[in-house]
Design brief:
The chain is of the alpha+beta class. It folds into three domains: 10-57, SH3 type barrels; 210-483, no CATH class; 485-617, no CATH class. The protein contains 21 helices and eleven strands. It has helices at residues 57-82, 89-128, 132-138, 146-158, 161-171, 177-203, 213-235, 258-276, 300-316, 323-326, 328-350, 367-373, 386-413, 421-439, 448-451, 457-470, 473-480, 487-516, 549-562, 574-598, 600-608; strands at residues 11-15, 22-31, 36-41, 46-49, 54-55, 281-284, 295-298, 380-381, 384-385, 528-530, 536-538. Helix 13 packs antiparallel against helix 14 (421-439) and helix 14 packs parallel to helix 18.
């Protein structure tokens, strides 16, 4: 085994990858297999460096002292070479005084020459250059100011000989060596600063593309809306079997109605108005890359209460809420069109956003990819945060309203005085999920959607179309395909849903409370692995059971939402299949992101917690 040159804990100088700059680092460990040193920079960054990229601090200090000590000897050598060894010291003093007098005479000569040249130039300029006064004379205007203007120019030139001498001194390099060294130092500092800025700008670009890169994101822009419309059309069929693909397509003119689009706009801006009301507390989000913290008003639950009151008022005045069911496809088309327009606006405005406000995952430089994933991290109109608003308000609350409309439509179509038990379970389970999200609204500020992902077509379409129209698929299915379940089966499904909810809520609460205040005495029982970023990775509680326990709770709840629809068709279970695929993708993305962010600490965490979502399975 080769000998180590640097010991653990030793402070050395490490070269920053891709540059020639060295920074002070501390050696934390050494890998005997790869022969790489793990070093920690002052900002907490941990990197693996080769031994050739590390130097001791003494070598830097030695070079500095050597250069400073050698400069006097050079000066003395240059002096000794300029003197003739055969001349006496007195003669040498005379020659130096003579040289100084010669330099003074040279300066005076230069000054006189400059003054004479200036006078000659003034005469030439006056004779041959058409000045403003000459133009006036040619146009027949009075020229009484010519003589005054010329005399003032001459006076001004006479009063500026020092400036001309200064330029000549610069031309012949007659400045002192100290001034030149200062200029060289300033220039070198500027070059280093520009190099660092170039490296930072290049490193901020998104290098690893998700979702199949440019081609994949281009296809998803069309595939996602097509999937939503296909699911809704299938639910309308008497036999929503996969064998009956493709479903009969409606006429294009029947998919659009201006009144429906107006209702959707009214809903969107009503929720925006509720979010701007000065109720609820104002909290700060997590620090951004520039250290700044954005402020958010937490009033989602109040907006839900106001929405419930508005819907109750409409029902009291006998407004037909099942209008949503009758025009469900048209509402989906209106929401998709609005999300596309919003996405275009978001991308256009992001082109003027500063570099530090761009999303880490949506700054690839490719138009289609950045348009899909989101180019700007937190687009705001004043204090109104567009991404934060769309995450919880119009889509999530709209999901509950759509479920209620499906419940009323089932009662009307089947002439029931009470909704079916299956419909009650689906509405209750999903209502609990939405109310929980709004009650714990502050927890969303620590999710990757807010801290990492930009706001583009992916989130705009997901928040405004996918969530309200796909998540309500079970309720929409039950309207046309009623399913009867017994009370024991309903009780078993309810228990399953609450198990998933308990895992989901308790895991998220542990994570959010620990991120907000790791030193909270209530969390003293939690053990964690420290990282170079200053954050800790929990290895006890739910996060010591699997790496993503919140995803496990999500999948269990999704299954409980689909079971009331029975087993006649696989369509109601699309949500479960989609949710598993989505969470596995998110889990893979989280794994990659955490490995880059936490380095060796994440590897130790994975060894401690080997299972990702499903214990003893995956």
């Amino acid at each position: 085994m080769p000998n180590r040159r640097f010991a653990d804990g030793e402070v050395v100088m490490g070269r920053w990858p891709g540059s020639v700059l060295y920074y002070e680092v501390q050696v934390t460990s050494y890998d005997d297999v790869s022969h790489l040193y793990t070093v920690k920079y002052k900002d907490g960054t941990e990197l693996a460096l080769k031994e050739s990229d590390i130097r001791s601090q003494s070598s830097f200090k030695h070079r500095k002292s050597q250069s400073s000590s050698s400069s006097p000897s050079r000066r003395s050598t240059s002096r000794s070479r300029s003197r003739s060894p055969g001349r006496p010291a007195k003669g040498r003093r005379r020659s130096s005084s003579q040289s100084r007098e010669h330099k003074d005479d040279k300066k005076k000569t230069i000054q006189e020459t400059i003054q004479e040249t200036n006078l000659a130039l003034l005469v030439l300029v006056f004779l041959f250059k058409p000045s403003e006064n000459n133009t006036r004379r040619y146009n027949g205007e009075p020229d009484s100011t010519e003589r005054n203007d010329t005399s003032s120019i001459i006076l001004e030139q006479k009063l500026k000989p020092d400036l001309q001498i200064e330029r000549v001194l610069e031309q012949y390099s007659l400045r002192s060596r100290e001034e030149e060294k200062k200029k060289e130092e300033i220039y070198s500092e500027k070059k280093i600063f520009e190099t660092i800025k170039t490296i930072e700008k290049a490193s901020s670009k998104t290098k690893e593309l998700e979702f199949g890169g440019r081609i994949g994101t281009f296809m998803l822009i069309f595939f996602l809306p097509a999937t939503v419309f296909y699911l809704l059309l299938m639910c309308k069929q008497d036999d929503p079997s996969l064998v009956n693909f493709p479903p009969p397509l409606p006429a294009l003119e029947s998919l659009w109605e201006a009144r429906v689009f107006g209702v959707f706009l009214l809903w969107f801006f009503l929720q925006a108005l509720f979010s701007l009301l000065p109720i609820g507390k104002v909290v700060e989000g997590l620090p951004l890359s520039n250290g700044r913290k954005l402020q958010y008003r937490i009033n989602g639950f109040y907006a839900f209460i106001l929405t419930a009151a508005a819907i109750g008022t409409l029902l009291y005045f006998q407004f037909e809420l099942h209008y949503l069911y009758d025009h469900f496809m048209q509402f989906a088309v209106s929401a998709a069109a609005f999300s596309m327009v919003l996405s275009i606006y978001l991308y256009v405005r992001s082109l003027k956003a500063p570099e530090e406000e761009l999303a880490p995952g949506g700054n690839s430089g490719y138009l289609v990819y950045d348009f899909f994933t989101g180019h700007e991290l937190n687009p705001r109109i004043g204090s109104f945060d567009l991404k934060y608003f769309c995450e919880l308000r119009p889509g999530l609350i709209g999901w509950v309203v759509i479920n209620l409309a499906m419940l009323l439509a089932e009662m009307k179509i089947h002439n029931q005085s009470m909704p079916s038990l299956s419909m009650i379970l689906v509405n209750s389970f999903q209502l609990l999920y939405v109310v929980d999200a709004l009650w714990n609204e502050e927890a969303i500020l620590t999710t990757m959607d807010i801290t990492h992902d930009g706001f583009g077509f992916m989130l705009a379409f997901g928040d405004l179309v996918w969530v309200p129209f796909v998540y309500s698929l079970q309720a929409f299915y039950l309207v046309g395909h009623p399913t009867v379940i017994s009370w024991p089966v309903a009780a078993a499904i309810t228990i399953l849903n609450f198990i998933g909810y308990y895992i989901f809520r308790s895991a998220n609460s542990q994570k959010n409370n620990f991120r907000r205040n790791p030193s909270d005495p209530k969390l003293a029982y939690l053990k964690f692995i420290p990282t170079a970023t200053g954050k800790g990775l929990l290895v006890t509680g739910w996060w010591g059971f699997v790496r993503h326990p919140n995803y496990l709770g999500d999948i269990i709840m999704a299954l409980a939402w689909s079971l009331p629809c029975g087993f006649n068709h696989i369509l109601p279970y699309f949500y479960v299949i989609y949710f598993i695929c989505l969470l596995i993708h998110r889990e893979a993305r989280d794994e990659h992101h955490c490995k880059q962010k936490y380095g060796l600490a994440w590897e130790r965490y994975c060894q401690r917690v080997p299972y990702r979502i499903f214990p003893y399975i995956y």
